[in-house]
Write a structure and sequence with these properties.
The protein has 92 residues and is mainly alpha-helical. The chain has one domain. It is built from 3 helices and no strands. Helix 1 packs antiparallel against helix 2. The longest helix is centred in the middle third of the chain and has 59 residues.
């Protein structure tokens, strides 16, 4: 309705159009800001999960090595376990 406002209301119509545009820009900025915050939180969560996963992998490796060293698992069993884990990880 921009041209009609200008035609019928002159400067007041222009000012109304400017106010509408400013409001629209404000809404877009708010939406973009929310999306950036959401993306940032997701990135933080992913980084935290990756760190936890790495820590768990280290714990499993240490546990398996300890079980092998104590004779609870044979070298063949450890090899088979590692192959099984790697094949599962490759499929994801």
């Amino acid at each position: 309705m921009g041209w009609a406002r200008t035609l019928f209301l002159g400067d007041i119509g222009n000012r109304l159009d400017i106010a509408d545009t400013e409001r629209d820009i404000g809404e877009i900025r708010t939406k973009l800001s929310r999306q950036r915050k959401l993306d940032s939180r997701q990135d933080e969560t992913i980084a935290q999960l990756q760190k936890e996963n790495q820590d768990l992998e280290l714990c499993v490796a240490a546990l398996v090595k300890t079980l092998e060293r104590k004779g609870v698992l044979s070298t063949g069993e450890v090899t088979k376990l590692v192959e099984m884990i790697e094949s599962d990880a490759g499929g994801e």
